[in-house]
Structures are given as structure tokens and as C-alpha cells.
Amino acid sequence: MAAPVKRDRLFIDNEWRRADSGETIAVANPATGEVIGTVPKGARAETASAIEAAARALPEWRRRTAQDRAAHMLRLHDALMDHRDALAAILTEEMGKPLAEARGEIAHGAGFFKWFAEEGRRIYGDIIPSPWADTRIVVSKHPVGVVGAITPWNFPNSMIARKLAAALGAGCTMVIKPASQTPYSALAFGDMAMEADLPAGVVNIVTGAASEIAAEMCENPALRKITFTGSTATGKKLAAQAGAHMKRVSMELGGNAPFIVFDDADLDKAVEGAMISKFRNSGQTCVCANRFLVQSSVYDAFSEKFAAAIAELKVGDGAEDGVTQGPLIDEDAVAKVEEHVADAARKGGEVIAGGARHALGGAFFQPTLIGGASSDMQIFRDETFGPVAAMFRFETEDEAIRMANDTEYGLACYAYTNDLGRAWRLNDALEYGMVGINQGLISTEVAPFGGVKASGIGKEGSKYGVEDYLDVRYALFGGLGR
Length: 482
Ligand code: NAP
Prior knowledge:
- This protein has 482 residues and is an alpha/beta fold.
- It has 15 helices and 22 strands.
- The chain has helices at 44-63, 66-82, 84-95, 99-119, 158-170, 183-195, 210-219, 232-243, 267-279, 296-311, 331-346, 378-381, 397-405, 420-429, 462-467; strands at 10-12, 15-17, 24-28, 35-40, 126-128, 136-143, 146-150, 173-177, 203-205, 223-229, 248-252, 257-261, 289-295, 350-353, 368-371, 388-394, 409-410, 412-416, 434-437, 452-453, 456-457, 470-477.
- The strands form six sheets. The chain has a seven-stranded mixed sheet with strand order 14-15-16-13-12-18-19, sandwiched between helices. Strands 9-8-7-10-11-21 form a six-stranded mixed sheet, sandwiched between helices.
- Helix 5 links the parallel strand 7 and strand 8.
- Helix 3 (84-95) packs antiparallel against helix 6 (183-195), helix 4 packs parallel to helix 5 and helix 9 packs across helix 10.
- It is globular.
- It binds NADP nicotinamide-adenine-dinucleotide phosphate.
- NADP nicotinamide-adenine-dinucleotide phosphate (NAP) binds next to helix 7 and helix 8.
């Protein structure tokens, strides 16, 4: 197949369609501010058509053997990898991240199709010893049915991939609503699905008005589950709306990750991990370190090394060679980062590096390091979602744990220590869905990704991820004779 291009139609029932209204949404390149195209502004009617197509495709898709579904999914994996460069170019153009990161994201996304192709073949049930003679209790797992997925802009490919792959492996069909800022990476899944020979209706993609698409997903009885990745505020609203119609939900929401550096840590490794965890995607990942808690005795040494590493970052258009920091997604994102920095400075924080909009203008912001941060600052409470690292001092392990857990969020956290006992104690005490001990990069398709507290419900990836797309049913076989 020819390399994927930026599709400007909805993908429903293996066909490319316009919105009924003919209305469109403009998509901009955050590095240049230029409009790079438009996509249809779909709403309730288009979502209903997509759900109908997915419901039509469901009986045949779920009846297939897991092996058959896996064959299509492996083809989808190969299609993504074959077109990796073209897909990465589209992703960088609409989202801004450096091309190398975009290529990494495509491979990460593709990995989910391979994983869930295999995992789909291991959906086991149980036989439970029965309390009654002449009976047998059989537990089996069945696909939930049609699933609606709503995804964010920060990982336009892989946030879809890890939902779609799990759904397909479980035998579900799907309607996807991507973020309006990054619809092209999502629509490319239409071409990938065709290349993988997926039957019509198994994958459908509707761009457009979020609240209308979400309302149709919540209210349409043919749709059985909603899986969402995005902000906690939107997730709470959507979960309430879905709850009113008793839809199953999975919620991958915001974080406020602590990154704890103890005095027994290897500081060079800690800085390496800090750079990956803080500055990947220009600080716009849900698992980005937001609060650097550093033990007083190593605070100055860590700060110096961290500042030196930050000085090496190269800000620019993600499509240019050697750039490590792209723009933020839009002006609102820059304004939020600016506000967090100003708030920190007002409350006594020291701006050690950066601290302002970048000379490139537009949505570019300087990689920033703030010292002497305190818990009354916004940056302690809210996800900054930008290239700002704030350092807080602590004295004892108990204090570090208390500070780390002092947030409504519970997605990812990180700790650097060479004390084995402490590492285990931290793993027990930190109230987070994911803990990186001496590691700044934790995402992989083989491990369960997901948060606790206000960071969400459910897991993606791993053997746990497929369970989110399955209903457990029990059958009692009676009258079997003694
Ligand atoms: P967002 O504003 O919540 O948007 C996410 C998605 O929800 C978009 O598709 C958006 O559509 C849609 N949406 C907006 N309003 C809606 C509504 N009323 N009902 C239903 N859907 C609605 O989040 P974002 O700013 O794009 O993404 C950043 C957030 O995502 C951060 O908080 C980050 O931590 C979180 N995130 C979490 C994970 C995780 O796995 N836990 C991963 C990545 C990101 P439109 O674009 O059309 O508005």
C-alpha cells in the first residue's frame, strides 16, 4: 500500500465519509501555527452510524477464533511498522514532538497489537468445585461488545493502539474519537485497518464535537463500554455520564508524579532518569515527573547536574534534526506553564534555568528548573504538563513518602535509591499505580499501565489489560447425575 496520508474524512464501516453537516475542524502544526488541513466535525448522527457499523460487525468478529483475530492484528502491527516513518511524520506535524520520539511512539503502539494478538489466545476460564452434587460451575469470559474510545493529543498513536489492540484481541469492535488537535494519526488507523484486512465495522473513527460524540456513546444502548484517556476533569464528567447509563468505563487520567532522590542514589543515573521522565514529549506525558523531591544532603549536587543536563536540550520544530524539545500543544498549554512558573517565583522559588517563553515564539517554552519549591505552590498540586522541573527538599524517608502521597493523583512515581530495603518499603508505601525504582521510563505493553485515586480506573497493556474488555460469566450445569 502507498504511504498513509492525512485523511480528511471519517472512517465508518471501512468507508471514508464527510460529516452530515459538512462542517469541519481546522488542524494546526503547533511548531509553526499553520493550519495543515481540516477534518470533519462529526456529531451524534455520525457517532450513531459508527456504533451501528460496529454492532453489525460484532457477532462475526467475536465468533472468530482468537488465532484468526491474531492474524489480522499481527498484520496491523506490520502495517504500522512498514509505514513507521510516514506515520511519525504525520504525528510530528500535528502534535509537535521530535521525529525520533514519534518513531518511537509508532513502534510502541505497534507493540500492543503483537502483545494483544498473543494475549487474546490466552483468555482462560475456570471450573469451580461446586457445592452441589450433580452440578458443574463453569466460568467463561466474553467480549464486552462495542467499545467507545476517547483519546488525548499527547500520544496520538499509542493511546489509541493500546485500547484498540486490547479490544480487538478480546473480540470487541470499536468506535474511536481522537483529540481534535491530533486527528490525522487516528484516521491513519483506518488505512492500517484496511491494510490488515479487518472486516468492515470492526474499527470506526469519528472526529468532531467531543460532548456530542460522548453523549451518543453514553446513551446508545448498542455501545457497552467507554474507555477514556485524558484529563481528570473530563474523565470525572464522562464517568458520571456513562454511569447514568450503566456503561462500563476505563479511565486513564492525569497524574502529579513525584520523583524522589535519596542521598544513597547514583546521582548520574537519577539525572538520566529525571531527563527522560520530565522532558520526554516536552513534559506533556501523564507519567511525567512533576515534583522532584530531593534529600537535603544531595540537593545541591543533584541540582547542579540536573541543570547541566537541561542546558543540553535543543528546542525547535520536531521535524528538524537534533531537536529534543518540540513546542507545547497550544497557547493554553504555554499559558498554564507560565502561570505555574510565575506562581512558584512569587512564593519564593528560584528559577535556576529557563523560566520564560522561548525566543522561537509561538508555543515554544524554555526547559525550566525551579529550586526551593514548596507545597503551597500550584506546581505541587497540579500537573504542569510542560517542561518545568521543580525541586523540593526533604530530610527523611517518612517525610518523602508523606510529600509524595500528598496529592489526589496516583498515576506514576519514581524513586532513586541504592538501599534495597528502602526500595521495597517505597514500593509498599507509595500510593501509585506505577512505581519506577531507579527507572525513569516505565511504559511497556507487557506491564499494567494505569492509576489509582483520581488518576483513574482500569489497566492497559499486560494480561490485566485484556480483562478490561471482557465480561466474566458463570454457568451452572445441573442434573448431571451422581
Ligand atoms: P482532555 O481535555 O480531557 O481531552 C481528552 C479527550 O477528551 C479529547 O479527545 C477531547 O476531545 C475529549 N473531550 C473533551 N471534552 C469532553 C467531554 N465533555 N466529554 C467527553 N470527551 C471530551 O485531555 P487532554 O488535554 O487532551 O490530555 C491531557 C490529559 O490527559 C492530561 O491530564 C494527561 O495526564 C492525561 N493523560 C493520561 C494518560 C493516562 O494513561 N493516564 C495518558 C495520556 C494523557 P477534544 O479534543 O475534541 O476536545
